[in-house]
Specification:
The structure holds 2 protein chains of 2 kinds. Chain A has helices spanning 14-21, 39-47, 62-69, 90-98, 111-123, 138-141, 190-196, 210-215, 250-260, 263-275, 280-287, 289-302, and strands spanning 11-12, 27-30, 53-56, 59-60, 73-78, 80-81, 105-108, 127-130, 146-149, 156-161, 167-175, 181-182, 199-207, 220-222, 229-232. Chain A is α/β, with parallel strands linked by helices. In chain A, helix 9 packs across helix 10. Chain A is globular and about 60 Å long. Chain B is of the alpha/beta class. The chains are: A alpha/beta, B alpha/beta. Chains A and B meet through strand 6, helix 4, helix 5, helix 7 and helix 9 of A and helix 4, strand 9, helix 5 and helix 9 of B.
């Protein structure tokens, strides 16, 4: 395994982190879907023109749509790829059905089995067994899934191979400059994928002191020794929600889905919100302070009575 | 019956029908949409000690707004616990979860579901319509104590042969599911807008068990892509009760899941913000 960054201060900026850790042809995990989805990271990957990436995840929504629509992905290893209740994954559909802008190779799993690949990777064991997948058509289209007879009981069992993505980006609520990270709400597989990846970059809403981390050590989901870089990135998941910080910007997502129905509409959206905003601050300014305040306000009202930031 | 209860739509009836299949004390893993509404009705009505889970990792959720996804921050609101995805789905595999509510784009007579791809004239590599993929549906269908399937009954949905088996039902019928070594009990019922289907205890073939007053055997047979059997004691699908309609109105005041609403507009941020402030903050989904 590549040596991790052992610095006591791993803080860098988004452009540097993406330039240093994402290389053409590398494998990439973007931790979490919906809540804490690393949206600003996906936009920066597009601005830097990274290509031939292999996306390794359990499920992807908006960030996956951006990357597949811009032709950044050569391969997708996943269980679910879609927007959800408010609309389809139009870019995913165009890519798979029509090869527009190009057709990524698909390697499909279920949610548990794709998670177990990361777990196996995090444990440095070659594979893990599961009682999912058997009897379905997933093993027929994915030769990496092996159905074997359990050597102990003779029962059928599926094996899925470990995976160690070249880099994982995870957006968290809080972390210290070493990379000890606090995650509130849905954990996704993020403490697992942080360990499975060869390099791990955290982006965060707030950088806090190591002292604050030490006050509630049980809240640390990711320990510093599997983290290589830390980026302070407020609203880094917008338009997706972050527990304790801001609410989902559903009108923004809906507008994206509507425009994504056509290739032209999608490219227009990319011009406006990705190429038109070189820095994350420009993106936030374009949204406007009132809108960001309203999203914070909804989350705050909604969380009344709950402990949190 | 009150005016409100009379005004029910097919979606309300489906949610109530699925809710009735959930028993008190059970653990229930759900997707977003009608499955969640069904589980909430059960918990608020006859199963106060049931527990709602999401594959995103939240356990015992009581949200103050309707979640838009299984990993929306609303799923973890007032939850009892948040686990990693692999952990909560391993709990499914280990048998901790009694009921899973799933859907799909296609179903066959043995309850096998497809949510990966409509191949049509194409191939798996280049399909006619690409869909989201399994998500947790394969895991839930494989290992939950039993599954409840919810989907609309349409000609293109109830097919002789699914294009792709994402989530195993009774596979080829008979004891083929058990022989495959799948741990969960398989589908208990298929709840649709036109009727409820169940499975023969031995052949595992789907048959029509209850029918909606809005449909007819003839219509249903036309929509089903195989020679459908009908229960000798075919029952009428129950209409939603007043309490159930109240629960649904309380939990989805904006009609996000249950039907078009003029109160929420997603094309304008201010009206979205105002609707959220006004209607959503004090309800425990």
């Amino acid at each position: 395994m590549k040596d991790r960054n052992r610095s006591r201060d791993k803080v860098t900026d988004l452009k540097t982190a993406v330039a240093n850790y994402v290389h053409d042809g590398c494998s990439l995990c973007l931790g979490s879907a919906i809540a804490r989805e690393p949206m600003a990271v996906a936009r920066e990957i597009i601005r830097q023109g990274k290509k031939d990436l292999t996306l390794i995840e359990t499920a992807k929504t908006s960030s996956g749509e951006l990357l597949v629509g811009m032709g950044c992905l050569k391969k997708i290893e996943i269980a679910y790829f879609w927007i959800g209740v408010i609309g389809q994954g139009y870019n995913f559909r165009r890519a798979i059905e029509k090869g527009v802008p190009l057709k990524p190779e698909l390697e499909e799993y279920s949610m548990l089995s794709s998670s177990l690949r990361l777990l196996a990777g995090s444990m440095k064991v070659p594979f893990l067994p599961t009682k999912s997948l058997i009897g379905s058509d997933l093993p027929k289209v994915n030769p990496k899934i092996k159905i074997i007879d359990d050597p102990y009981t003779g029962e059928k069992i599926a094996l899925v191979p470990a995976v160690n993505p070249d880099v994982t980006f995870i957006h968290v609520q809080k972390c210290d400059p070493l990379g000890n990270a606090v995650i509130l709400g849905n954990l996704w597989n993020d403490s697992t994928s942080a360990r499975a990846a060869i390099c791990t970059v955290l982006t965060c809403e707030e950088i806090i002191s190591e002292e604050e981390i030490r006050r509630n050590p049980n809240m640390t989901a990711i320990p510093h020794y599997c983290v290589d870089a830390v980026v302070h990135l407020p609203f880094g998941a917008h338009p997706e929600p972050v527990d304790g910080y801001y609410w989902m910007d559903q009108p923004f997502r809906k507008n994206f889905v509507e425009l994504s129905k056509t290739r032209e509409g999608f490219l227009q959206w990319i011009d406006d919100w990705v190429y038109g905003c070189e820095e994350n601050d420009q993106y936030l300014n374009k949204l406007g302070g009132d809108r960001l305040d309203a999203l914070r306000d909804l989350e705050q009202k909604y969380r009344h009575g709950m402990t949190g930031p | 019956m009150s005016e409100r209860a009379e005004q029910f739509q097919a979606v309300h009836q489906m949610a109530c029908a699925a809710a009735r299949l959930i028993r008190d004390g059970e653990t229930v893993i759900v997707g977003i949409g009608l499955p969640l509404i069904a589980a909430v009705i059960a918990r608020e009505e006859h199963a106060p000690n049931s527990t709602i889970l999401f594959e995103g990792g939240a356990i015992g959720t009581k949200s103050r707004r309707i979640p838009w996804s299984i990993a929306d921050s609303a799923t973890s609101d007032y939850a009892q616990a948040c686990m990693e995805v692999w952990r909560v789905l391993s709990d499914v595999q280990a048998g901790y979860i009694d009921v899973g509510i799933v859907g799909g784009a296609q179903i066959d007579r043995f309850g096998n579901l497809n949510s990966n791809t409509i191949i049509g004239q194409g191939s798996y590599i280049s399909p006619q319509v690409r869909m989201p993929g399994s998500g947790g549906s394969n895991d839930i269908a494989s290992s939950c104590g039993r599954t409840i399937i919810m989907m609309r009954l349409r000609k293109e949905n109830f097919v002789d042969k699914v294009d792709f088996v994402t989530s195993p039902g009774f596979l080829e019928g008979g004891d083929s599911r058990r022989r495959m070594g799948l741990r969960g009990g398989g589908p208990e019922a298929v709840v649709t807008d036109k009727g409820i289907f169940r499975f023969h205890p031995e052949t595992k073939r789907m048959f029509l068990s209850e029918i909606s007053s809005r449909s007819s055997i003839r219509e249903i047979k036309e929509f089903v892509g195989w020679d459908l059997e009908v229960a000798a004691d075919l029952k009428s699908m129950e209409a939603p009760k007043e309490l159930q309609m109240e629960i649904m109105a309380r939990f989805d005041p904006l009609g996000i899941i249950l039907g078009p609403s003029e109160e929420i507009r997603l094309d304008d941020f201010q009206s979205y913000y105002q609707a959220m402030i006004k209607n959503v903050l004090h309800h425990n989904i």
